[in-house]
Design a protein that fits this description.
8-stranded mixed sheet; 4-stranded mixed barrel; 37% helix; alpha/beta
């Protein structure tokens, strides 16, 4: 039987959680936060709905969220159905013209609509758009460096410029822009842009207070390569590091982490105060990061700036490889 005391304890716990969030609500009220959405959080139904709830919560809490998304799992599935092979170099998808048609169709025509629909179950907030729309993102063709050599990876671009007018207009109207990571090419056509890279470029241009990247790991690890699962037992992700310290670690990162950490480094060097890599497999990871004292995941900052009682991150000199 549930007693009144039990009910009071639950209520006090809820009140304590809300009070802990108060200084962060004050700090980020009215601020823009760019969220990169991808990984398992996009394919698990519970996580998909939790993400949508988090985004709407930010909107009601007075923040201005902007969602930038990829859709790797969905693109892979569609390519498999068409009998087309997925190839990656330096963490980037090799994109032929045929593959680009699939990428464009899946990101803008399928994934974008699904995200918009989930958010709009809670109110008339989300507006879907592509990086092509209103020349939001313009990109130049990109080559990847593999084993010291430059390799052509097809219709893949790096963001050359951002024209944020359409996004700022939506934010001023109280909407939540949801943006697929394809871009207009400098010389015409459409290019596939890594969603982490697109989110960083947009965060810089919007002068965002935070860039948050959801991924499939708990953060950046100093000693675990990700190839040896047993070594993860005692591994802890780095809580915080500066852009310069991250630059020293970059040569040892795995292909999958390179675009994410490069995006964080670009963002903070471009004026974004904080960039975060969070585990998107954890329900409500975004709220845990933004509205709790300790936060979660790995935070990249321009210079050392301790947050609350965060434990010190491992010295860069001790780090050999990362996941």
């Amino acid at each position: 039987m549930k007693t009144l005391q039990d009910g009071n304890e639950v209520a006090l716990q809820k009140a304590a959680t809300l009070i802990e969030a108060l200084p962060w609500l004050e700090r980020f009220h009215g601020q823009t936060v760019v969220l990169k959405y991808g990984g398992n959080a996009m394919t698990d139904e519970q996580l998909r709905r939790a993400f949508a709830q988090d985004v709407v919560f930010l909107r009601y809490a007075g923040l201005r969220p902007v969602v930038v998304h990829g859709g790797g799992p969905q693109i892979n599935a569609q390519l498999d159905r068409l009998g087309l092979r997925s190839v990656f170099r330096a963490g980037l998808r090799v994109t032929t013209p045929e593959t680009m048609d699939v990428v464009r169709m899946v990101l803008t025509g399928q994934v974008n609509r699904e995200i918009v629909g989930l958010i709009n179950e809670h109110g008339p907030f989300a507006v879907g758009m592509s990086g092509e729309d209103a020349h939001l993102l313009t990109a130049r063709r990109l080559q990847a460096e593999v084993d010291g050599e430059m390799v052509d990876i097809g219709e893949v671009g790096d963001v050359e410029s951002v024209n944020p007018g359409a996004v700022t207009a939506l934010l001023a109207d109280g909407r939540i822009p949801v943006i697929s990571s394809v871009a207009r090419g400098v010389t015409g056509g459409v290019l596939n842009v890594n969603a982490d890279t697109a989110a960083a470029a947009l965060a810089i241009e919007l002068r965002a207070a935070k860039l948050v990247l959801l991924t499939d790991v708990a953060g950046l690890y100093p000693h675990w390569s990700g190839r040896d699962a047993a070594s993860a037992i005692d591994a802890r992700p780095i809580s915080q590091l500066t852009a310069d310290e991250l630059a020293a670690l970059m040569p040892g990162l795995s292909d999958g982490m390179i675009p994410k950490m490069e995006a964080c480094m670009r963002a903070v060097r471009g004026g974004v105060p904080q960039a975060h890599v969070l585990d998107g497999r954890l329900p409500h990871a975004i709220l845990l990061e933004i509205f709790t004292d300790a936060g979660i995941g790995t935070m990249v900052v321009p210079a050392v700036s301790a947050r609350g009682d965060d434990p010190p991150y491992p010295p860069v000199g001790d780090a050999d490889v990362s996941n």
